[in-house]
């Protein structure tokens, strides 16, 4: 009897992050995020409430998606039930609910697909696990497709490469189409359309926030480190998650970017039109939304006449920007072809470090012993630099260049095998805190191991969702809330800026982080 | 969904944030705070009032760092920290204090 309680304080040996949980069927059936209101739905062009003939509409939509995305059909057809994925999902490991096994999650859609789109399923559904779309099935869809953070860890282990994220995106798009949307994502996308960012931060507030930070950095360094907004003719447009303008430790990372730009001497600007790097269109599987959000970046780049686009620390934003932006909003032939389009802020910073253009006093980060959490979308859906695996090496290289103490977590929990933070894919919503906490368990256990073995005190990340999620769940696992830091926060602490006064560049961190 | 305030039903959303910002008043704030297990002290009011003033001007709550910096001036450096704000508002200064201040919940990756 090894029933596992995710939050129990065990006095014994540290639990294995990958430990198979005892099965608890139905444990998370009631985990459901709030539904979007009719206004939130309609703002995105979806019906405000469940449409009358929802079954037909849903099947039609599934048919449309199968025609549009060949990958979806391949994923729904090719599972051989080998079981390789079963224990690879952090939500399964944290909850023991068998419907959180990736194969079971896929089957929620697959059984309806088989019933309506395969010969065997149409005529002998009982033989092939085909099932009609019923209210119960829709209810399961809403619960369990909102317990998938689309992190794609399972797909790394699937011999066929079945991507549960894509199935989950399709299911969410079908649900939106019949009028059953999720509040967290859809409300936020509405704010991007109207205000320009997930936060709903109006230009005036953005300007005031940036000025406040400029003032703070000037007090700290004595230097006029700028955070320019809407400056035409700048070389670089920085597009970053709006959380960087609001939350901690996000904002400490933003100050790091500004210091790097300052040191580089390259002109840059933020945009009030494209004041958001995040693109929740991906989470809800909506190509049109993804495109609309991406076009805001294109418009800002054109209006401001920049030569380059740099993306700040945001996981799925980097996936969309790196993998899809050219298709969604390209061609970007008006940008300087000598630089990657777009470029990640970590690539930008690492490039300068490699050229010897940035100097650091690593001892300014000596109050921290660090590890790095690979964010799922960066790790498994993108790259950085010009070598394979750059998305793993470059952030680590930056940490090592700015800190004396760095230790990786267990091999099977990092790089392409990294665990989701537990809040990705549109799940960073308070009412589903239970699944968020449980989904964080594998990462928290891996962190506990390096804490125990190497005295690690802090974990760095390059994703706004990871940072917000960990700020919430770290205390649940006995860690300090502020044990999560931005990679560019480490840069900010340690960078030596020419002409800076006194050089106590650690100040900004001490205010908040000292124990 | 609503707060029962002096016999009146004051509408809020699923999470207790007021749907009509103009329905807020200090007594209601005390009531919302009680639901959140918070006894409003002068320090809590300092934060809530700052949030409301900021919202009036900018139509959004301030960043945590902006808030702590402002509090440094009024409450002194030892209380102007993220940690202290979490002591006042254990569920997080942004979300919980906004709820009590009658402001919308900050959304996004926060």
SSE layout and pairings?
The complex is a heterodimer of chains A (515) and B (110).
Chain A (H helix, E strand, L loop, with lengths): L37 H6 L10 H15 L1 H9 L11 H6 L6 H16 L1 H5 L11 H10 L8 H5 L6 H15 L4 H12 L8 H19 L14 E4 L10 H15 L3 E2 L17 H18 L3 E4 L3 H15 L13 E2 H10 L15 E3 L3 H6 L8 H13 L30 H7 L1 H14 L3 E4 L2 H10 L10 E3 H8 L12 H7 L2
Parallel strand pairs in A: 1-2, 1-3, 3-4, 5-6, 6-7
Chain B lengths: L1 E4 L2 E4 L14 H10 L6 H17 L5 H12 L6 H7 L4 H8 L10
Antiparallel strand pairs in B: 1-2
Helix pairs in contact in B: 2-3
Describe the 3D structure:
The complex is a heterodimer of chains A (515) and B (110). Chain A has two domains: 38-181, Orthogonal Bundle (Fumarate Reductase Iron-sulfur Protein, Chain B, domain 2); 190-513, no CATH class. In chain A, 47% of the residues lie in helices and 4% in strands. Chain A has helices at 38-43, 54-68, 70-78, 90-95, 102-117, 119-123, 135-144, 153-157, 164-178, 183-194, 203-221, 250-264, 287-304, 315-329, 345-354, 376-381, 390-402, 433-439, 441-454, 464-473, 487-494, 507-513; strands at residues 236-239, 268-269, 308-311, 343-344, 370-372, 458-461, 484-486. In chain A, the strands form two sheets. Chain A has a four-stranded parallel beta sheet with strand order 2-1-3-4. Chain A has a three-stranded parallel beta sheet with strand order 5-6-7, sandwiched between helices. In chain A, helix 2 (54-68) packs across helix 3 (70-78), helix 2 (54-68) crosses helix 9 (164-178) and helix 15 crosses helix 17 (390-402). Chain B has 110 residues and is mostly helical. Chain B folds into two domains: 2-35, no CATH class; 42-100, DsrC protein, C-terminal domain (Arc Repressor Mutant, subunit A, Orthogonal Bundle), CATH 1.10.10.370. Chain B has helices at 26-35, 42-58, 64-75, 82-88, 93-100, and strands spanning 2-5, 8-11. Chain B has a two-stranded antiparallel sheet with strand order 1-2. Chain B is globular. The two termini of chain B are 25 Å apart. Chain A binds chain B through residues 34, 183-184, 187-188, 191, 197-202, 204-205, 208-209, 212-213, 216, 241-243, 245-248, 250-251, 278, 314, 428, 430-431, 464-465, 467-468, 472, 481-482, 511-512, and chain B through 14-15, 58-60, 62-66, 68-69, 80-83, 86, 92, 94-95, 104, 106-110.
């Amino acid at each position: 009897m090894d029933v596992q309680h995710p939050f129990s304080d065990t006095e014994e040996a540290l639990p294995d992050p990958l430990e198979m949980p005892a099965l608890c069927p139905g444990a998370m059936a009631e985990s459901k995020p709030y539904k979007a209101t009719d206004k939130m739905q309609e703002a995105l062009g979806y019906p405000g409430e469940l449409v009358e003939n929802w079954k037909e509409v849903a099947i039609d939509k599934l048919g449309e998606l199968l025609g549009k995305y060949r990958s979806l059909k391949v994923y729904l057809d090719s599972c051989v039930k080998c079981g390789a994925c079963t224990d690879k999902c952090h939500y399964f490991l944290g909850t023991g609910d068998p419907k959180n096994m990736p194969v079971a999650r896929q089957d929620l859609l697959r059984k309806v697909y088989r019933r309506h789109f395969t010969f065997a399923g149409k005529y002998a559904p009982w033989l092939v696990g085909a099932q009609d779309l019923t209210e119960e099935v829709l209810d399961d869809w809403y619960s369990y497709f909102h317990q998938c953070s689309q992190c794609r860890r399972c797909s790394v282990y699937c011999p066929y490469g079945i991507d549960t994220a894509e199935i989950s995106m399709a299911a969410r798009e079908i649900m939106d189409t019949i009028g059953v949307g999720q509040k967290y994502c859809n409300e936020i996308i509405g704010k991007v359309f109207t205000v320009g960012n997930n936060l709903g931060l109006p230009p005036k507030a953005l300007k005031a926030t940036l000025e406040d930070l400029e003032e703070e950095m000037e007090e700290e360094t004595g230097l006029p480190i700028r955070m320019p907004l809407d400056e035409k003719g700048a070389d670089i447009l920085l597009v970053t998650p709006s959380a960087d303008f609001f939350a901690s430790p996000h904002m400490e990372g933003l100050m790091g970017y500004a210091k790097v730009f300052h040191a580089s001497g390259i002109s840059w600007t933020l945009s009030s039109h494209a004041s958001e790097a995040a693109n929740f269109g991906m989470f809800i599987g909506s190509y049109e939304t993804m495109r609309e959000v991406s076009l805001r970046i294109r418009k800002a780049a054109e209006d401001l006449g920049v030569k380059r686009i740099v993306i700040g620390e945001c996981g799925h934003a980097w996936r969309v920007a790196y993998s899809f932006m050219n298709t969604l909003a390209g061609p970007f032939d008006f940008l300087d072809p000598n630089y990657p389009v777009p470029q990640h802020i970590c690539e930008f910073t690492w490039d300068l470090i490699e050229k010897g253009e940035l100097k650091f006093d690593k001892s300014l980060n000596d109050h921290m012993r660090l590890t790095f959490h690979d964010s799922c979308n960066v790790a498994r859906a993108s790259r950085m630099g010009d070598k394979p695996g750059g998305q793993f090496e470059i952030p680590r290289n930056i940490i090592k260049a700015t800190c004396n103490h760095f230790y990786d977590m267990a091999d099977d929990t990092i790089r392409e095998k990294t665990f989701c933070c537990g809040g990705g894919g549109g799940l960073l919503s308070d009412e589903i805190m239970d699944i968020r906490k449980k989904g964080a368990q594998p990462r928290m256990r891996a962190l506990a191991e390096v804490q125990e073995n190497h005295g690690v005190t802090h974990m760095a990340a390059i994703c706004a969702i990871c940072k917000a999620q960990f700020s919430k769940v770290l205390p649940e696992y006995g860690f300090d809330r502020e044990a999560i830091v931005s990679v560019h926060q480490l840069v900010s602490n340690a960078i030596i800026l020419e002409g800076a006064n006194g050089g106590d560049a650690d100040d900004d961190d001490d205010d908040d982080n000292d124990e | 969904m609503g707060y029962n305030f002096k016999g009146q039903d004051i509408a809020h959303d699923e999470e207790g944030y007021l749907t009509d910002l103009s329905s807020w008043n200090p007594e209601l704030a005390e009531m919302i705070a009680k639901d959140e297990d918070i006894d409003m002290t002068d320090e809590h009011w300092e934060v809530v009032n700052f949030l409301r003033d900021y919202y009036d001007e900018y139509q959004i709550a301030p960043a945590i760092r902006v808030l702590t910096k402002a509090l440094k001036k009024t409450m002194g450096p030892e209380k102007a920290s993220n940690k202290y704000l979490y002591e006042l508002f254990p569920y997080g200064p942004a979300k919980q204090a906004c709820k009590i201040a009658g402001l919308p919940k900050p959304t996004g990756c926060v």
